[in-house]
Amino acid sequence: xxxxxxxASELIDxxxxxxxxxxxxxxxxxxxxxxxxxxxxxxxxxxxxxGIGLVRVRDDGSGVPxxxxxxxxxxxxxxxxxxxxxxxxxxxxxxxxxxxxxIASVSRFRLASRTEGSDHGVELLAEGGTVMPPRPSxxxxxxxxxxxxxxxxxxxRRKFVRSDATEIGHIARLTERLALSxxxxxxxxxHADRLLLDAPAEPGASAEERVRxxxxxxxxxxxxxVEHSAGAISLRGWIGLPTxxxxxxxxxxxxxxxxxxxxxxxxxxxxxxxxxxxxxxxFPAYVLYLDLDPRGVxxxxxxxxxxxxxxxxxxxxxxxxxxxxxxxxxxxxxxxxRPPVAAHPAGVEYPREQALLGLAGHAAPPAAPGLWKLAAExxxxxxxxxxxGVLALRGxxxxxxxxxxxxxxxxxxxxxxxxxxxxxxxxxxxxxxxVDMHAAHERVLYERLKAQSAAAGIPSQHLLQxxxxxxxxHELDALLERRAEWERAGFxxxxxGPSQVAVRRVPALAVGRDIAQLVRSxxxxxxxxxxxxxxxxxxxxxxxxxxxxxxxxxxxxxxLPEMDALLRQMETTDRTNQCNHGRPTWxxxxLPExxxxxxxxx
Length: 602
Fold this sequence. Notes:
Layout: H1 9-20, H2 24-37, E1 42-48, E2 54-59, H3 69-72, H4 84-88, H5 99-104, E3 108-114, E4 121-127, E5 130-131, E6 135-137, E7 142-148, H6 155-158, H7 164-181, E8 186-191, E9 194-199, H8 207-215, H9 217-221, E10 223-230, E11 233-240, E12 252-256, E13 259-261, H10 264-273, E14 286-291, E15 297-298, E16 309-310, H11 313-329, H12 370-378, H13 386-394, E17 414-419, E18 423-427, E19 431-436, H14 437-454, E20 460-470, H15 473-481, H16 483-488, E21 492-495, E22 500-507, H17 515-529, H18 538-550, H19 560-572, E23 586-590, H20 591-597
Parallel strand pairs: 1-8, 12-14
Antiparallel strand pairs: 1-2, 2-7, 3-4, 3-7, 4-5, 4-6, 8-9, 10-11, 11-14, 12-13, 15-16, 17-18, 18-19, 19-23, 20-22, 21-22
Helix pairs in contact: 2-7, 10-11, 14-18, 14-19, 17-18
């Protein structure tokens, strides 16, 4: 066995580089964070060959004094902390004193800087960790760092670097995060001769303008502002509408005290807030800024400082979750709000049956009021089969209003008919409203069931005679395992032999329906969705499935009073912009959009 020895300084730096410098994007992160800590107001990043050939970061910060320049490449040398107390309340992005020596140990490195009032700048060169003496250099106020031939002396590490396109993609996404963290700092990213990001910082520029510059108008158009404080903790930013969710988690940005982080606790809090409104397999988009006492968060949890650790994590998690949950609960029809299905939903994917009419155009003179009277007269509404529809809506425990226009304008207006037994057509003050009646009723039922379950329990009714159903043995076992969930939902179910089940009590909303079919459908849905449902709580999954199976089905003909009853319920029920599965429930075509369709006013 070899004797114990002290490692050479160059080897120690290269080992540290393995933790801190994972890829070229890590170099950009460390250098830009140093620039921000130095008070820079303009940062330019130039990259070649995906960052392997060159990473150059220029800033107009305070600079490094000439006599301190050699210390910048010394291990664990930093100007940002001096004691344990400083570490426990650190607000700077960097503080470990590892980044520059680690980068210099695996590259051909140049550091040039000039402070305010200095006659000239000073530069320092290093190659593979070997540092040359400092020398004068023409340099404007601020600092320039050049990193060339990254990992040239560590071929084993260089093998793990991906293609130029992959590496520049990581750098671009990182620069977006950094730009979103500081709206008061101008960022510019170039790869070879291509300008990839230009985010200027005009005097008085707002965080909203920075978000628009980085993520585009579409993000803000489909987002809800967030602003809430409780004591020393505050949350601000934007969360995307549930119907603007994405196929991947590529627009999720968390900032804690100005630091970009990827924290599982915070990401889980967002996921739980969206659990009732998000379509399965989709990811919400958000830009969120959490500010709290720096002593309540440990930023020294990981060498790359991408992860943080909260000293009291449960209150932070609950604060974020409940704040967003309350905001998302208000996603219901509102005359001043955008509908969940935009008139022209660019970049948003919907199932084919949700791809409703959509037009985008310039404003035109409003249509004549007589248009709506004519439309109502031309839409034939069958009054047959009304009993089933009344029963379905009375399951909500709500009196059915009479037909006719409400006394005051309402967001969803007044029903005038149905289309193909699937969509309700309504006239509102703003124009034409289309409602997916099954999706809307499903959400209304689900919210009512949740409220009843949390309060006195879901109303139920005993059957005069038990209903005996034949089931498969494994289905019976699964049913008995979930007996408590069935009972909370208003059912009373017992085994009636090795392959039979007896239903003795059912929820009041299920009275008059095909109980056997309902029980079988819920049993199958729960079995299929047990491992992949968007709702985490078993009770919520059960109530969501029950609501889906008892809601009005397609091709059920409703009377106008029944349609109006559903519209009024939608307007007063939380989260009714989406069904239980996260799909949109309604959309609106304004009068100018309808005028555009028919070229009125041209």
